[in-house]
């Protein structure tokens, strides 16, 4: 099966390499980056996640791609599409998500990479809709969602977190194929 890779003006979204594991572990261990997730990940947890992501891409030909700078081939984070396994009341769905090393924040990379993923979702996978969700405190990700043309749909409590957990309340954003195509 041919694995899809995406390119933008500055970025390449590709299958993962074992060389990505060390910077990915750095990303996942950073307390500031992971403040909107239940906890930072250990090296073992991060490596297991990267391996799972690689396997899903190998099985589906698409997924949560590693993102690298085109000019230097430096790994800077990940962006992509995923079918969530949690028991959400808005399933079935395909989620878009991203996470970048802190030194690459504020440069428009998340929006640029995610836009390419939405284009892929609607033109290649022929999806009708893509969702994104995050903890209500994660304003930077919500701003990316809004820049992508996604709109707020509802607040909900993440089923994998206890209701009293400080990150339990999430926001759900959506974008339809029709809406995306009108904006591009």
TrEMBL record:
UniProt xrefs under Gene3D superfamilies: 3.40.630.30
Entry superkingdom: Bacteria
One GO MF term attached to the UniProt entry: acyltransferase activity, transferring groups other than amino-acyl groups
Residue ranges of every copy of the N-acetyltransferase domain listed in the record: 11-178
Protein name in the entry: N-acetyltransferase domain-containing protein
Organism, as annotated: Acinetobacter gerneri DSM 14967 = CIP 107464 = MTCC 9824
């Amino acid at each position: 099966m041919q694995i899809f890779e995406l390119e933008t003006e500055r970025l390449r979204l590709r299958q993962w390499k074992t060389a990505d594991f060390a910077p990915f572990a750095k990303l996942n261990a950073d307390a500031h980056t992971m403040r909107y997730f239940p906890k930072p990940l250990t090296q073992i947890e991060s490596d297991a996640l990267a391996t799972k992501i690689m396997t899903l891409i190998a099985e589906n030909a698409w997924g949560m791609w590693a993102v690298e700078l085109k000019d230097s081939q430096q790994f800077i984070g990940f962006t992509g599409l995923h079918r969530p396994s949690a028991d959400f009341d808005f399933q079935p769905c395909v989620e878009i998500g991203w996470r970048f090393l802190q030194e690459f924040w504020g440069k428009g990379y998340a929006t640029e990479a995610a836009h390419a993923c939405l284009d892929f979702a609607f033109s290649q996978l022929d999806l009708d809709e893509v969702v994104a969700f995050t903890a209500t405190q994660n304003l930077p990700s919500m701003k990316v969602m809004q820049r992508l043309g996604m709109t707020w749909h509802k607040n909900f409590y993440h089923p994998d977190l206890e209701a009293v957990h400080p990150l339990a309340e999430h926001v759900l954003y959506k974008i339809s194929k029709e809406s995306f195509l009108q904006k591009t």
